[in-house]
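Bump. Still looking for Xanthine dehydrogenase family protein subunit M structure tokens.
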Amino acid sequence: MHPFTYTRVSSTRDALAAGRRGGRYIAGGTTLVDLMREGVEHPATIVDISGLPLDEVRATERGGLRIGALVSMAQAAAHPKVRALFPVISQALELSASAQLRNMATIGGNIMQRTRCTYFRDVTAACNKRDPGSGCAARDGFNRTHAILGASTACVATHPSDVSVAFAALQAQVHLLGPDGERRLSFADFLLRPGTTPQREQALHPGELITAVEIPALPRPLASGYLKVRDRQSYEFALTSAAVALHVRGGIIREAKVAAGGVGTVPWKLPAVEDHLIGERPSDALWKAAAKKAADGARPLAHNRFKVELLQRTVERQLRTVGGHA
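Sorry for the wait, here they are.
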């Protein structure tokens, strides 16, 4: 591990000042510390923000939900408002990691976590995300777990966060605080596809701090849930996953929110699936037909062609689970 300077701050003003000087923010440290130990990351200054007052979960005036960036994964998953309004978030968090990690890791850190691509974490391998211009070893290497959606010639790594899939489905917004004041970004705009600059993963300005994630109000009743398919039952990243939220009134689907994980370079919203559902009556035939559209635009690699059908089956199963049988 490279030498670094550690500083702990107790106010957002001090945090922003340290960020302007090039400091890297850390709270739970469950991702950054690992990457520093492996030699992938070597920040000169670590800024501990764990003491900032950003650890509240509260309902918004319009019936949405605001989750502070420093709320732990465990706290968010167990919070009564989260479980009651958006169970898809609780389920995604509970399927994400061990209890020990969920107690430490924060919501802000979770959505900022970097890929689990083995080539990214192997400092001897070519990786444009870690070393821009060096190449992408995964494209011609063993790419079973890599992306079939949103990839580029520069990078085919998937985004690892489960709760980010739920946030993408629910069209959450990320609240930011920086040297130029406050701003908010849609979740779709916050996480960036690799394109020709895979090393830039979020649309953060230098020194900006995540303060909260807000889920907008959605029509009630809203049924939702998260399904994760992986090689083993526990402590494994998704091969495919699906976050689904449906508003059904009068026997008709009035609102549909669907996103997939484990298959895209970012959590992958599925508008074609959503459009196929809205205005229709729930049925097994509808779930199957809508799920067929989940892999539209997929570009599988040599070892992950199975993900096309697996994604369709995952989405179909979760639509049926949330929406019920005909």
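The domain at 1-53 is CATH 3.30.43.10 (Uridine Diphospho-n-acetylenolpyruvylglucosamine Reductase; domain 2).

Edit: fixed formatting.
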